[in-house]
Structure formats: structure tokens, C-alpha cells
């Protein structure tokens, strides 16, 4: 750590925990983070950051997996929780906020990305569950921060506060992105396409937990899976199943055909592929040829070519199944993840800074084995000539991610903040 | 018509309308008719009828299409509406009531059956809808008497009142069955198997409307379809679709296989057959191999053999689909209808009595083209040596059955009551 | 019977048997009747008939179910059996012959149609099989006259001989059509479209047997089924199933999808429909993604609309199944039958002439329950203002049609000849 | 090479070519190698080997993929080609021969295995195809030695001749196995289970070609795929598709269901799996519900567990598809391959001897990527305490294996013979 940035570690550590617990109480799922965004924006504004909302940070046409009805309910709830009306207006329906600290001095543009959404999981009601016995459990039944994004948000605010307090010791520009809708990989592509990161020289992102124990920093996680999430909406024609079965166009039957055939997409020579239909909902009455059917599914591949192969087959099959039964088809992309490759110089940088930032063990590579829409941000920054890294912040967990009993080791937020601050400090004087 | 029974037609006509409107306000769907039953029982008790509930009139093991969760909610609601606690206790969870008027004098046992359940249809909110502008619209959103069973109930009470008032002029025994759960053909079989009708010499049942105009009586409707209603519950094993797809047992895939194959049951040499899967619900998460899938379907046949052929194929296919995917299967019968054949002597009787009962036109045969669980009652009575008839009471309708705009011509209830009274009167002196 | 035509019944009866047995020895399946046509043509030419071949009687583009490779083999075989080279040249690859006897005198144009093809059935090798113990069994293994068209051909020649011998007693014009490829309903449409029958006033056709006993004439058979016969050829791309399964386009899988879905074409409100896939052949090697698959199937309907409904669904499904698997599809129509409705005046005529022609019992209506491409000829003649009839000539059978043990009662050919002669005679003087 | 064995290389080289060309002329497919076996046996007998046939070398109950009808035809053909009647009797229907040279002196038991069957491929008729222009092309249309087993046989005879000529210089026992039916992996398991190799200390086997160039020896090929080959025979009930479709049990439909579902067997977490249905044959008539259907398929897996997973799913699916359609199912295993792991000490031995045996390049590992039933022999020998090796003898090829243009570089047989002789010689003095 350079001497330019000073921290009161005890005070910061406590504030991180306070922040995290507050966000834990008010969990909001993807594209619904109105209260969360409002709270973040209020804090950042008071610290002197310039704020960017809505189309400035999210390319509206690229948004995936956003349900207008859910969003409407979420806005009401956020207002009820006390969201700021001005920020609500600035968001214009699109959650998330980008904050800029421009020192006015020449220097690199460093960005950090923190994802802020909760998941649709019912939080544990057990007394042993810490959020419950310490009184910061979720106030929204069926939604909770079971992935750790409350901690990510807190880390982001910790970084923001320290940078603001050390403003005079900094040069260049700092951009903090509080990103919505990471769950389901729904926002990453839209953030990338907004262009908000196009001037960035260095991008940092991280995830807490992920089967990495407390004290360990994984600098270069491997094998981010490519994936496409999709909904298939089949629309046919209802008819009385007894009186004139020939008059219907059976959306349910078309969807069944699509499922069976999608599961039979040929395996690929070049490696691992996957396909799943996780949900199927169709029909209203027992004696009516169903006019509507919805499938929710996903493909995966161990690289982008393999996932594309799978997804193109899904499209081909779904279209043909619709034609076969004379029904219409709408394919709605709900999320997408591409690979993610860290820049080696940043991997090396974090590996050097880790022990000084409060980690006790530095691991270079570890299988990630899941999907992350940060891949889009990393790809965009790299395409524009910048460098990017996504690392894992170890934390012992009470239960696995997306479990109702999930809980983190709150003491692991501080090292993450310090790591980021050290990296910013280092890059200002020694660009890599 | 004998002279033994006297009626004040004006008063009776108004009471029929009052009864019908009250039941219209408190609609309860199949197996949920607690308030309805309580109200009927209270009126009949005050008239001196002996009442039979629960197992006495319904063979519990033969009940179909009853959802415990819905029933629990319905009990609460009925209590809120003011259902009588004693009757609730007597029902013991099973709706419907049988009432007996025993004259103590030798004579035939005549039974009349009235079905009392409403349907899950949203009632019209238009000002032109009479229940709305006259203030007797449904008090339960999403449920309404759109099939006319409120009128059937009122007719039954009209008959009950008149008979009680003329008790001294009667001989033999009168049994009035206020049957639950006719919609979906869910209760008929259980009523038949209870044996409550086994001593009946003559059974009468009727439906109002059914595309028969006001003033017309159809004595012998034809072609009651045989049908089986079923739910298929597939239970497999969830697994992460990306990480270990081989570890799951895919209930959704099994259900898709079942659907596709059920729709391909071979046509039958001997006539019309049908099969439909009207609803399909499966899965929770996009990236989870679905562990649960539910199909709701039905078969039909123009006779009992043809429906049995279809239903046996459904069972064979569903079982094999489950085995194919290594999932468990539970088949829940939700309703059943068999044919219905009237006794010619009763057809002749009604044809003779119709014009004197207030009908202006008598039609012998008309296609019914739907299903009725009264078929089980008719079959049972005939099997025990009695005679039975199911007729249609004409009524101009505001809209078709099961439409939210459905409404009847209330003036057509009175002729139905008179027809039944005349028939009872006639049979006491001239058995057929 | 008028006195204009004289017959030596004994001699004619024996010649009919001789003709029938010769044709029985040389059976040729649909579109392969080169020797048969050559023999018929030789006999008719010697009787002074004007002969028409090939495009004159068959509209080449409308031909269905003709296999060039089989035809090539058949031509060779026919030459080996001694077919006439000149007639072979005239046929130009298309079998069948039309013969005209123009009296030069004014009068009606009467046509008679006789179908001449055998079926691909293995003839019984049992000693009790008459063709075998009398020495006229099929000389071509796997093909035999198991439908009675050898008798039809003999009847046609008997009519031809008698008419030629009585030429001076006739007026108008007689046209005799010896039609190929009735089996599978492959030629009828092409004959109709050739226009050869367009000047015909009266058309007669008949079938021997058909569950009608010896001695009985059925004048007006009912319910000729509409049907479409089709082959579906799926062409994909082979690939090594182990090494690169993703590189193939699986024609076998596409065909399986098509079959399953075709069997699930919804039943039709308006009546009886059928669909069958009778044959499926695909693939060469066990470890190769199959590049080729052929399905052979048929649809039926109790009227033309219903058969069209079924066939259009087949096409829609097959095309979609091909697209789904990325394979090409060729649909080859192999045969077609439409309904057939006799003209009442001809029904009446035959009913009057039957007893005088050697029949002992006249039946008006009987269910046909099968398909006949004579329907196209009847429709064409009727469309052009003529009248037509198709009747059944009773014959006790040794076994059912298309059985290897099939054999007719040869004595029943003579009454058929006499019936046709009587009809011609009657129509020349008393047109109906 | 030790000095104990002496060879006239020129003479031996020419004899190998002569042998190979003779066997090339008389190709016989799997389980049909009667003439081949007879010729081999005659030569070995004249060299003084003790011969073992039939049950002595093949466990009859474990035989896979043997068609009795084909075998019957093959026996006739072999007799026509001049097979020895005594050997035919000894074979008792089971092809292949084991030969033993017992020196009577103590020493190791060394076995060599040569596979002798041809493949069902049509040999090239091009003038440029060497077997054609040199006059040793296949005498059996549709069958040819397109895999190089004619060369394997010749190599075996070359080894046999040299060993017999050097008998006095040898110790221990030599066993030469001329194995039938390697193609499709049909015989290996049955040979292993016969126990004929149970006393073997060292087993050698090899394949010529396999994309290894002339002059190269591959000592330790890797990744032998596990595979199961199977035929599924569905037997239902025929019925007229038009008249009574409900009366059939549709074997074709059951097979289609099985195919679609087999292709959808879930991918496996642990690695590469494959499934293919390479052939589908069903039905006879277009208008008959098909009573018979046959599928020919295979599964693969990159290890035994994965192949078992696939094959068990195939069985489960096929059984359920049969039940679903009410048809019977017979599963006939047609071939099986397990992995194959060489013993390192023998790999080292061959690597040392290669250059002295006429090879110019020694390669240790190369992907095999296919299946070999030698795996069963290797496993058996290893299980009984012996050591085994399977190597690749490089040969430039005119075209790939199983192509009609396939031809080998005949000069590469001699180094193979020398390699085996050197190995035997070495092992007699220096066991590994």
C-alpha cells in the first residue's frame, strides 16, 4: 500500500458491516433494485460523486430478463421503504448507478464494478441464522441476499468513502459501477453496450465466497461458462377439446415437442455442452386445447462456440416445433454469459498486493465453473484497449450460495476494500 | 295433475327468485359449498325434514377432484359468511345434504337431485349484468354461479317448501338430494356408491338452460358423453442442469413424452374418441432438472367402452413415460362421467305433464353433447330396480354456460317446481 | 337383353377361363404390366380395334407411385416372356392400352374400364391352391394376381371379342380401357387427366369378389374412402457418430419425429380420419449418423375434406420435422383415391339387367369400405356430362383379397360379360 | 534380435504378400470365415501345430452379432470355394482357429492374436485399385478386406512358418490365435471367456495402418473407447390401419419413441458419451400397423462407467417404449468393447526392438480413438497374471479403413513379423 491513501481500519470495518446489514434487510431481485439504488446514490452524492443513471449506464434495448409487472410492484415497494423520489425519477425505471470521482489531475481511469441484486430465495427462519438472531433478516418474503451482493455493495461503498476522503491524494479518474441484475446474467451485456466503461484503463470486479475460504485471494479464476438463458412463448389457438379438437392450434403440444427435441441436441465433438428446460407452464382449462405455453430454459458450453451451437439448435428446434403445430413463437432472451479472461498483468498485480491487503493466502488459478455477466464488461474494456480482472475474495460460508441459510464471514469485506485501494494507488504511480 | 298439492304460485315464484339471488351472492366451487349447504340445511330443518350429511350421502373413498387446501380456505370463508357451526360439524368436511320427508304412509320413494356448486369463472363487472345492477353479484371474486346451479338449488327449496306444506296430502317417502361438486363430474360416483338412493323408486334431475329456450321442456336429452378427468403427477429428482445433468430424473421430460404419446393414441374403429392435456406445470428454476411436473387432462368417448379404451391407454402411456425417465407417477382421478339413459315411462310421464306445469312446448329428444355425473345416480337407481329421468328446463340466457355474463330467465324456475310436484303427485296414485 | 348381340355362352365361358389363367401365370405389379399390355394389345388388334397407348391414355405428369428401377427390370422380364417389340415401343414405358371400336353409326359412346395389375404378394405354394395344382401359378416369385385383376382382364377381352363379332349389330362407339396400376390408386388420376374418357356418355367398371358371394350383383356400393398415399424421403448428412456427432444431420431422427407427430394429428369434429406410417427404412451403418430415411404412409378420411385435412397436416409436420433436424425433405405422392358416386339411372339399369345376365340375386347398396382410383374416372366422366357406375360382381373366394391363397370362382366371369353386353345393347336403343 | 531364430527375409517377404493376396480374394465377414479358417488350419497343420477349434477357443454363449442365416450361406460358399470338410466339421459352425507349438522345454507361454474377418464394404472397381489391376480383387461382391485383416492373417502365418522352422531353437509354448469377428467387437469377449488364453504369460496383438505412416511403430496407443453395440427388436401386432387402427400394437411407433428418447439421454458430468441409432427398419405394407421394427445402435463412453450409464439408459428407454405401445422387446447385444491398457514393460520391450525389426521410427503414444475387442483378451491375460500389449504397425494407405479403395503398403508386413519374432526370442531369455 502506498502512503497516499489513509484508512481508519477499525472504523471502516464496522461501517462495512453496517452497510451490508442494511442492504441485507432490503433485498431486491434483478431489475427491481430501486431502494438499493436510491440508498447507494444518496450516500455517493453526499460524498461528492457525480452520478449517472439509466440510459447513461444501461443500453435499454439490450436489457434481458426484465419483467415490467414485477418492476412496477418493486417501484411501489421501494417508495414504501423510503426511496428518494428524485433518484427514482432519474432512474426512469432502470436500476443501478454509476459514480465518478474526477480528480482533475492527469492519470489513469480506474473502474470498479459491484453487483447489487438479491435472489428469489426464501431466507432461513431458523434462530441460528445470524441475520435472524441479529435482527437484519430480509424484509421481503421470498427474496434475500443469498449470493453475497449485499457485501459487494458494502465493499463498493467502503471504497467510495475512502477514496472521497483521500481525494487530494489521487490523480486520474475513478468510476464506480453499482450494477443491477447480475443474477441470470441479465444486465452485463446492456452495461457494456452503454459505453460507460469505454474510457476505462483498468477494471476490477470480484465475488465473495465461491468456495474459497476466509483469508484466501484467488487472482485468476478459470473456466467461466458460456450460457444463454431464454424463454419460449408459444401462442396457438384455443378450441373445445371435446367438440372440435381439429380447430385448435395446440401450444402445449408444440412446447412438448420442442422440449423432447432440445434435450436430444447432438453432443459436440469439441467438448462440454448442456441444455435444460427448467420450467414449463401451459393451459388454463382441462377441456380446452391450450393456446399458450411458456418454456424457460438455458444452454451452456465450455466455450462460446459450443454455447452458440447449442443455442442455435434450440432456436431451430423451437421454430420448427411451432410450425409443426401451426402456432406462433416468440423467443425472449433472458440472460447471457460469455467467457471471461483476466489480463495477466493485473493477475500479477493482485498477487503482489494480496498479502499486504489482509489476505493470508494467494491462489492463482481455481475453477469458477459458473457464469458471470462481468464477462461482457471485461470483454468491452479489453476491446477498447483497457485491462480487466475478476477475482475471488475468500469467505467461509454458513451455507452454499443461493441457499436460504447462506451467510458470509463479514470480516472478509475489509481486505477486499484494501486490495482495491492498494491496486488503485499502485496503478496511479505504476501503470501496468 | 291430482288435486292433492296446492300452491300459491305468485308467492312461490317470488321466493324462488329470492332464494336464487341469495345463493348467487355466495357462490362456492366444487367441494367448497359449506355456506351453501349450511343455508339449505337450515331451511330444510325448519321445514321438518330429516337431514343426512357426509358419509351418509357421499362415499368418501370415491370422492374425486377435491383439493384439501382449497377446502380449508372455503371452510374459513363459510364461517365468515355465517355458516352454522353445528351443520359444519355434521358435514365433517364433506359438503351437500340429503333431506327426507317420510309421510309414514305406504307409497313410493321419490327422489329429486339438485346440484349446488358454482364455477371458477369471473363474473361480469358490466353494469348491464343483472346480478350487478340488481345488487346480488358474487361476493367471491373469480367464482360465480355461471352454470345455473343457484337456480337448481332454489327449485329444490321451492319443491321442499311446497311438499312440507302439503305433507298431509302425501304418501310414501320424498328424498331431496342437494349434491355438491357436479362441475368436473366429481361427486356423482361417490353419491351413487353411498347407497343413499338405493331405495328410490323414481329419481328426477334436471338442468336449466342448455340452449333450450324459455317455455320449452326437453324430456329425453340424448348423447351424454363418457369422460374421465385426471391429473398426472410426475416426481423425479432435481439436479443442477449445468454441473451434473446425469444426476437428475427429469419429471418435465417424462411429462412431455407422456403428452406427445397420449395425443397419438390410435383412433378407434367404433367411433368418436378424444384426449386432451389442458394444463402442464413443471419446474422451479431455469437451471435445475425439474423434479416435479403436473398434467391435467381428460379423455372422452361416445360410449363407455371407447372412453375406457382411451383412459387405459393414457394410464399405460403415463406409466411407461415415468419408467422411461426414472420418475414416479401418481395418477389422480379428478372426475368421471358415464352415459345416461332415461326410462321411457318417465319420459312419457313428463311429456304428459309438461303443458299443465307451465311449459308451452314439449320436445322429446335433443343432443346433450356434454357430460353429467347424474349418470351415476341414474345408473344406480336403475340397477336397484328404480326408474330415473334427467330433463332440460328451457330458459333464455344472457350468455352461454360458464361465461361471466351468464344469467337465466328467473321466471322459468316456477314451471320446473310445478313439473316436479305434478310428477310426485301423479306417481303417488299412478305408479309407472 | 336385346337381340342384337349373340353369344355362344359355352365357348365364351371357356375362353374367359383360359384368358384368366394365362394372365395369372404372368403377373406384373403396378406400372410393370408390359407383357400383360402386349398380350391384350395383340388380341385386340387382331379383333380390329384401334389402339391407343402411353400419353394418349395416361397423363404422364400425374403418374404416381412409379419406380423407374422396377420398371426397367419389368421391361426386361416382359421381353424375356415374349412381349411384342412394336407394342413395347408404342407404350414408351407407360403400360396399359385403350381400344376403340367405332361403328361409324350414330349412337352413344360407351366405355368400360378393366384394371390389369397384380399385387406384390407371394402366391401360396400349397398343393390345394388351384393355380398350383392346375399348373397356372405365378411365374414371378413374390407377385401374383391376388386381387382378381386377371379376371377383370379376361372379362374385358370377353367383352371385346363378343362386341367385335357383333360389330354390325352395334351403333355408336365402344371404348375399352385396360388400365394399369390400380393397386395403391396410382393411375386413376393420370388416366382421367389424359382426357381419353372425355367424350364418354356411359362408363362401366366393376370389381369381382369383395366379400360378395357368387351369384350376387351389388349395383351401388357405398362409402369409397378418400386416401392419400405418400413417401417421405429425408436427406441429411452422414457423420461418424462417435467422432463428431454434431457434424451430422440426422435423417433417421427427423423421420422419427415426423412419425410420432403424424400419429398425433388431432381427431376431426366431422368424422372418421386415419393416418398410418407402414414402413420406415433408414441408415446403413451402426456407427454413422443416418443420412437417409424413407417413410411410407397414408392418410384416409370419410370424405375429401377430411382426407385433405389429414394430408395437409402430414405435409406440415414432415416439413417442420425436416427443418428441425436440418435435413431436406422430398414428398412423393404414391397414390390417391377420392370418393365415388354412381349415377342412379345406371344403378337402376344394372338392377334391371342383372337377373337376365346370369346373377341370381341383386343387391342395391353395400359398404365398400376401401379405396378405388376408378373414382377419378367416374368424376371425370360425370364432370363432362356423362354417367358412370362401379358395381361388384359376386364370387366366392378361396381366401381374402391380397392373401397368397386368394382364388376366385371362375364361373362368375361370364355373368359379368353378359351384364356389360346387355347394358351396352340397352343403352344403344334406350339411353338413360 | 537374438541368434536363435533365422529368417530368409526375401522369401518370407514374398510369401507374406502371397498369403495376403489370397485371403484378399476370399473375404468373409464376421462369423462367416469358414474358408479363411480352413485355409489357415491347413497351413498350420502342415507346419505341425496342434489345432483348437470351436468351443475350445470361443465361449459359445457369449457370442455376439452372429446371424444364423448369413452363417448358413457362408458355409455353402466356403464349401464351394473348396473349404476342407474335416475342418468344417471341427469348427462346428464357429469360425477361427487356435494353434499351439509346444516345444516341450520349460519357458514362457507367448500368445499372438490375429483377426481374420473382412468387412461388408463394396470393393472399388476402379482400374487404379491395385487388387483389381493385379488380379486379386474380392470374389464376393459387397465384402472386402478393407480393414487390413488379410494382412494380419498373413503376418500370423509368416510368424507361424518361421517359428515352425526354428522349433528347435525355441523353449516354452507358442499360441497363435486366428480370431474371427473382430469387426463390431463381436468375438473378443467370447474368446476371453473360453479360457484358451488363461495360461498365457505374454500376449501380443497389433493393427496395421490406423493413420500411422509406413515405417513407424506405435508402441502404446491410447484411449480405446468403450462401446456397446445392440439391436432392438420390437414385436407388436399388425392391424389394418384403415379399418381398425385400435387393434394394432405399433412396433414402428414404439421404435420411433425409443429413438427420440435415446438421443435425449442426459449428458454426463464425468465426460464424453455417445449414442447413435444407425439403422431403422420397420413394416411391410403402407396400410398396415407395423408389427415389427428393428433398430441397430451403439453407445460409447470415454470409460467403462460412462458407457454403462449410456447403455443402461438405452435399455430403460427401450423397455419403456415397448410397454408404452404394448409391444414386446428383444434386446440383442451385437458387440462390446472395453478399454485396453498395455503393460508398460512390454511397451518398453517393443520400443527397444522396433528399430532392429525394420521400423524407422518409434512412437510411444498416439490416440486410438476407436474400439477394439482385443481389450477383452488383454484384460483376461492381465487378470490371470500375464502381460499384454496392442501396438500399431504403420502403413501408408491408398484410402481410409472401411473405404472401398482401401489398400495397404504390403512391404510393411515383414517388419511386423520380425518384431513379433524378436519379442518372442527376447522373452524366452529375458522375461519381463
Automatic annotation (TrEMBL), chains A, B, C, D:
Keywords of the record: Hydrolase
Domain of life the protein comes from: Bacteria
InterPro entries, A to Z: Amidohydrolase, Bact_exopeptidase_dim_dom, Peptidase_M20, Peptidase_M20/M20A_hydrolases, Peptidase_M20_dimer
Keyword Signal found: no
Sequence ranges assigned to domain Peptidase M20 dimerisation in this UniProt record: 229-304
Pfam families attached to this UniProt entry: M20_dimer, Peptidase_M20
PANTHER family reported in the protein's UniProt record: PEPTIDASE M20 (PTHR30575), PEPTIDASE M20 DIMERISATION DOMAIN-CONTAINING PROTEIN (PTHR30575:SF3)
Protein name: Amidohydrolase
Amino acid at each position: 500500500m502506498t502512503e497516499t491513501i489513509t484508512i481508519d481500519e477499525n472504523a471502516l470495518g464496522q461501517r462495512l458491516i453496517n452497510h451490508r446489514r442494511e442492504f441485507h434487510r432490503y433485498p431486491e431481485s434483478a431489475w427491481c433494485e430501486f431502494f438499493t439504488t436510491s440508498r447507494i446514490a444518496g450516500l455517493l452524492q453526499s460524498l461528492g460523486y457525480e452520478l449517472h443513471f439509466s440510459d447513461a449506464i444501461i443500453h435499454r434495448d439490450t436489457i434481458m430478463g426484465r419483467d415490467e409487472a414485477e418492476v412496477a410492484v418493486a417501484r411501489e415497494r421501494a417508495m414504501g421503504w423510503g426511496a428518494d423520489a428524485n433518484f427514482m425519477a432519474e432512474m426512469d425505471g432502470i436500476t443501478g448507478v454509476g459514480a465518478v470521482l474526477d480528480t482533475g489531475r492527469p492519470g489513469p481511469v480506474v473502474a470498479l464494478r459491484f453487483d447489487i441484486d438479491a435472489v428469489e430465495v426464501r431466507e432461513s427462519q431458523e434462530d441460528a441464522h445470524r441475520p435472524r438472531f441479529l435482527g437484519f433478516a430480509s424484509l421481503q418474503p421470498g427474496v434475500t441476499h443469498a449470493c453475497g451482493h449485499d457485501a459487494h455493495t458494502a465493499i463498493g461503498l467502503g471504497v467510495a468513502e475512502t477514496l472521497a476522503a483521500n481525494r487530494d491524494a489521487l490523480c486520474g479518474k475513478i468510476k464506480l459501477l453499482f450494477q443491477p441484475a447480475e443474477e441470470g446474467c441479465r444486465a452485463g451485456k446492456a452495461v457494456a453496450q452503454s459505453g460507460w466503461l469505454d474510457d476505462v484503463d483498468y477494471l476490477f470486479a470480484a465475488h465473495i465466497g465461491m468456495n474459497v475460504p476466509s483469508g484466501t485471494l484467488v487472482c485468476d479464476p478459470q473456466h467461466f461458462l458460456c450460457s444463454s438463458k431464454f424463454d419460449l412463448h408459444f401462442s396457438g389457438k384455443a378450441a373445445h377439446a371435446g367438440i372440435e379438437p381439429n380447430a385448435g392450434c395446440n401450444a402445449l403440444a408444440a412446447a412438448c415437442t420442442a422440449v423432447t427435441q432440445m434435450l436430444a441436441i447432438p453432443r459436440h465433438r469439441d467438448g462440454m455442452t448442456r441444455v435444460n428446460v427448467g420450467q414449463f407452464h401451459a393451459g388454463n382449462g382441462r377441456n380446452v386445447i391450450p393456446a399458450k405455453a411458456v418454456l424457460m430454459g438455458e444452454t451452456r458450453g465450455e466455450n462460446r462456440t459450443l454455447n452458440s451451437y447449442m443455442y442455435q439448435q434450440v432456436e431451430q428446434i423451437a421454430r420448427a416445433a411451432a410450425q409443426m403445430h401451426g402456432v406462433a413463437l416468440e423467443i425472449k432472451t433472458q440472460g447471457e454469459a460469455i467467457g471471461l479472461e483476466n489480463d495477466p498483468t493485473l493477475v500479477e498485480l493482485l498477487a503482489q498486493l494480496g498479502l499486504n491487503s489482509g489476505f493470508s493466502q494467494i491462489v492463482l488459478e481455481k475453477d469458477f465453473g459458473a457464469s458471470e455477466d462481468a464477462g461482457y464488461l471485461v470483454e468491452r474494456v479489453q476491446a477498447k484497449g483497457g485491462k480487466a480482472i475478476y477475482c475471488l475474495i475468500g469467505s467461509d460460508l454458513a451455507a452454499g450460495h443461493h441457499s436460504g441459510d447462506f451467510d458470509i464471514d463479514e470480516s472478509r469485506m475489509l481486505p477486499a476494500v484494501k486490495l482495491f485501494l492498494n491496486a488503485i494507488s499502485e496503478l496511479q504511480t505504476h501503470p501496468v
